[in-house]
Design goal:
Oligomer: single chain
Number of helices: 3
CATH superfamily of the largest domain: Porin
Strand order of the largest sheet: 3-4-5-6-7-8-9-10-11-14-15-16-19-20-21-22
Radius of gyration: 33 Å
Number of domains: 2
Shape: elongated
Number of strands: 22
CATH architecture of the largest domain: Beta Barrel
Order of helices and strands: HHEEEEEEEHEEEEEEEEEEEEEEE
Largest sheet: 16 strands, antiparallel, barrel
CATH class of the largest domain: Mainly Beta
Length: 450
């Protein structure tokens, strides 16, 4: 403080001295004028130095403030708070899906209705630059009508200090199945194909993944879901899963994707929870057309999958084949299940669907002109053929084939209306009331995520 006061004191003394010299008489010599000019020059120099110091101090204070100020950042659909260097960030988001369905029943009663398919909130962000976190909760209560009930969905911490290599620990999706790993915000139809029951979904575990300019690879070890528990203090089951993808063609207008996955499951004492069943690609009904029943005498499960997908301008194609081999505690209990789907979509308004190389999945649609911004959004038609075979040996779970047609209207990138027509083409389940049941379904959804 004393250092900054000295220039002011010196300037004051020079000013007083100059005024006193001017008032001392009327006969100023050239020497006096030179002295006065010298003092004025000194005063200007001191004032200039003082101004420079003040400017430097102001700039330093602004740098400190800018380095510590948390600023809101928008990606067009949600709001995130982040430090200027992105070392720390926090974002709240979610999704809402309101469904309605009308069933044209065949042999079994199927009730029309409405439901909240998903109602989720999440918090995610970055800690200390190299750590990402995610916590999401599902509020929609589908406990009696869905294999995935309400509760924690994603809850993990991810280390990215060696990017593109990533290490993730927590509850998240296992690396198996292209459509399963595609976000619900992006899928073409109301529900995934009936073969999806052969994928593991989420589990608590650890995963390592990496990627290049045209490929990705991931592998992990997982336990049960958070809600999973074994009675009488038994041992929970565990999984090992891995997936690799390669896109030899990768441009904004053309993509060719190949993928493969493998999973080994050891049920241990949780065999009473090992069961494969699914609804006819509509979640409102509580009727499962195919159901393997509880497979209590299974020693281990080996699942394999193959993927083929492509994009050509506004057209996309995607398909998968999966096989699940169950090894029983004796050879007579060995069972093989399989499933596949093939689907295609055409964006009538000319948009191109994005492709995420690091994840090996297609991305969301970005309308060329969103509703509310002077446009009509993006329009899309799609079709899918899917099949699931749970008949093998003593297990008669059912063999089902479905055809699904879809019309999607993307009002914005995160708001869309969906209309599906699902027709069960074949249901082979001898000895069960569902045998030969071929209902058709009309389903609608309003989807919004932020």
């Amino acid at each position: 403080m004393a250092r900054k006061t000295l220039p002011f004191a010196a300037a004051a003394m020079l000013a007083v001295g100059t005024a006193h010299a001017a008032a001392s008489g009327t006969e100023a010599t050239s020497t006096d004028l030179d002295a006065m000019q010298q003092r004025l020059n000194q005063l200007e120099t001191l004032v200039g130095n003082l101004r420079s110091e003040l400017d430097a101090e102001r700039a330093a204070r602004q740098r400190v403030e800018s380095a510590t100020l948390i600023r809101p950042v928008s990606d067009g659909k949600s709001l995130k708070f982040a430090s200027p260097n992105n070392d720390f960030s926090f974002q709240v988001g979610g999704r809402l899906e309101a469904d309605a369905a009308a069933y044209e029943a065949d042999k079994q009663a199927l009730g029309d209705g409405t439901d909240l398919r998903r109602a989720r909130l999440y918090a995610r962000g970055t800690l200390a630059r190299d750590f990402d976190y995610m916590l999401e909760y599902e509020f929609a209560d589908n406990a009696t009508t869905s294999t995935r009930s309400k509760g924690v969905t994603d809850a993990y911490l991810r280390y990215k200090g060696f990017a593109p290599a990533l290490l993730t620990v927590g509850n998240f999706k296992e690396p198996f199945g292209m459509e399963q790993l595609t976000s619900d915000n992006t899928t073409l139809f109301l529900e995934r194909g009936i073969n999806d029951i052969l994928t593991p979904g989420r589990g608590i575990g650890v995963e390592a993944r990496t990627s290049g300019s045209q490929w990705s690879a991931a592998a992990g070890v997982f336990g049960e879901r958070p809600e999973g528990d074994v009675s009488n203090e038994g041992d929970e089951g565990w999984d090992m899963a891995a997936r690799a993808t390669f896109a030899p063609v990768l441009t904004p207008d053309a993509v060719l994707h190949f993928g493969a996955g493998v999973r080994r499951h050891e049920p241990n004492d949780s065999t009473n929870a090992l069961r494969f069943r699914t609804k006819p690609e509509s979640n409102l009904t509580g009727v499962y057309l195919v159901d393997s029943g509880v497979l209590a005498n299974t020693d281990n499960v080996l699942a394999t999958g193959a993927e083929l997908a492509a994009l050509w301008g506004p057209l996309t194609f995607q398909s998968e084949y999966m096989r699940t081999a169950l090894e029983g505690k004796d050879a007579a209990q060995d069972t093989d299940f399989s499933g596949w789907y093939a689907q295609t979509a055409w964006l009538l308004t000319g948009e191109r669907r994005g492709y995420k190389v690091a994840e090996g999945v297609f991305d969301r649609v970005q309308p060329l002109a969103s509703v509310g911004l002077g446009g009509w959004g993006a329009w899309e038609i799609a079709a899918r053929l899917s099949e699931l075979d749970l008949n093998d040996g003593a297990v008669i779970g059912g063999h089902e084939r479905n055809l699904t047609l879809a019309l999607n209207w993307y009002l914005t990138s995160n708001i869309r209306l969906m209309l599906n027509h699902i027709q069960v083409l074949e249901l082979d389940r001898p000895g069960n009331a569902a045998d030969g049941d071929e209902p058709s379904i009309w389903g609608m959804r309003l989807h919004m995520d932020f």
